[in-house]
Amino acid sequence: MGNVTGGIRRDPPPYTNPNHPPPLQYNQYQGYYPYHNPQGARAPYPQVAYVEHQEAVTIKNDVNLNKDTLRFEPDESNPGKFLLSFTFDANVPGSITVMFFAKEGKDCDLIATKADLFPSTTVSFPKGLGQKFKQPCGTGIELSALSEAELVEANESDVYHVAVKAEGKTPNRQITHAVLEKEKGEYKAKVVKQVLWVNGSKYVLKEIYGIGNTADGSGGEDETESGKECVICLTEPRDTTVLPCRHMCMCSGCAKLLRFQTNLCPICRQPVNRLLEITVNTNVSNN
């Protein structure tokens, strides 16, 4: 309680010894946290935006298409036509449907916009990892017959040149969309989007940089994948991804400390919106 004189409250100063100045005063605002300023007590203290730290939620995907393996192979029985091929993993038996000039409809259903010219193909598959899919002979596409106008028109109307639907026994499915690009006179399929339809919800798949060698213990050629240890402490394994740049480069401990010091990714220095903690399961069962 302070002293009251003449009806005016006078609080004594908290520090009366001039040789001992008061401690640093931090102005803390909602969503922001201060950090140590080496310039001294009188220098301004910059504010660092608070970064949200989340844990990933596991979603079961029964069938997964390896997008890096998507390509066209010549149909030996039908000169001039090409068959779509790729590798995929399946935890359950199911079917794969290939469509050309397809549009994504409600509930991730595919709608063929040129079914009369390019009929869709559906093939059943058994359970198994590392399977190779290839369209049956005679069901491919004659790439040389495609005009530049057709390809441009499809791009401008949300129609994908190539669409692959992979699904098991449940309504859940994975959709892979690709566009045709001409390179040195030859057409190649480039995957532009992969989505999952699980329990009535749609998820767009995004690649995480640095998670591959974390899961299998192998190194990569990219500088962001030179090892599986946290880039800050260099001891703990990486388990936290920076969003939106998607660099998996830190352990959860360093990530939680980083939230209060900077809002820049340690790899690319882009602003951080969220930190996503991911538990990588290296004990994959084939059952």
TrEMBL record:
InterPro entries the UniProt entry points to: LOG2-like_mRING_C3HC5, MGRN1/RNF157-like, MGRN1/RNF157-like_N, Znf_RING, Znf_RING/FYVE/PHD
A single MF term (Gene Ontology): zinc ion binding
EC number: 2.3.2.27
Domain RING-type: start-end pairs: 230-269
TM region positions: none
Start and end residues of each stretch annotated as Disordered: 1-23
Class in the EC hierarchy, top level: transferase
Pfam families: RNF157-like_N (PF26192), zf-C3HC4_3 (PF13920)
UniProt cross-references to SUPFAM superfamilies, sorted A to Z: RING/U-box
Alphabetical UniProt keywords: Lipoprotein, Metal-binding, Myristate, Transferase, Ubl conjugation pathway, Zinc, Zinc-finger
Family from the record: Belongs to the RING-type zinc finger family. LOG2 subfamily.
Record's protein name: RING-type E3 ubiquitin transferase
Taxonomy of the source species: Eukaryota, Viridiplantae, Streptophyta, Embryophyta, Tracheophyta
